[in-house]
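Per-record layout

source: Hanstruepera neustonica
name: Outer membrane protein beta-barrel domain-containing protein
length: 192
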Amino acid sequence: MNKYFFIALFFVSSLASSQSVNLDTDVPWTIGIGVNIVDNDGFRFDKPFDTNNWNFKNPLSINVERKWRDFLSTNLAITLNKLTKDNKQNNGYLTESSNLFALDLTGRFIFDQYIWEQNPRIDPFEGYALLGVGYTSVLNTDSIMLDVGLGFNFWLYEDIGLRLQTMGKFGFNDNQYLKNYIQHTAEFIIRF
């Protein structure tokens, strides 16, 4: 448990100490709250939209994002969900339903400004790719994860928007239920 405390402390201190960075943006912070879906069916690429085994029970997603440049940001997210024993979880079934807790720190490369010219403050759309590390806990088992994904921010009114994101999470252990999974999120976001 101490190693997770030190990892979290390192990430928080890195965010705090970088306050002196010269920013390209006048709205560096974004907070979001929403829901998530855990697709834990073992990365079945033959049926990518088979929703029969998606987990959507008590799904909460909260995040804080810090934008360093118009094209680069860091995000810290906490997600909760419940894996149900009735759904197939990585080609197996749980003996009992279990809560899933995930903590993710990702870097985001905002790429849409390289596709067409825009003013970041009034552009209604932001596309980004993400890469980072995460921690997931299910059935009293922990796993460190590699996070890779894509997301889109839709700014509906000035600094209020909607975020849609899909992230593949690859585990560094042999636990059947935490090996790999996909997490989809939809969040209400505010930047300031």
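summary: The two ends are 34 Å apart (CA to CA). The beta strands are 29-39, 54-55, 60-69, 72-83, 98-110, 125-138, 141-157, 160-171, 180-191.
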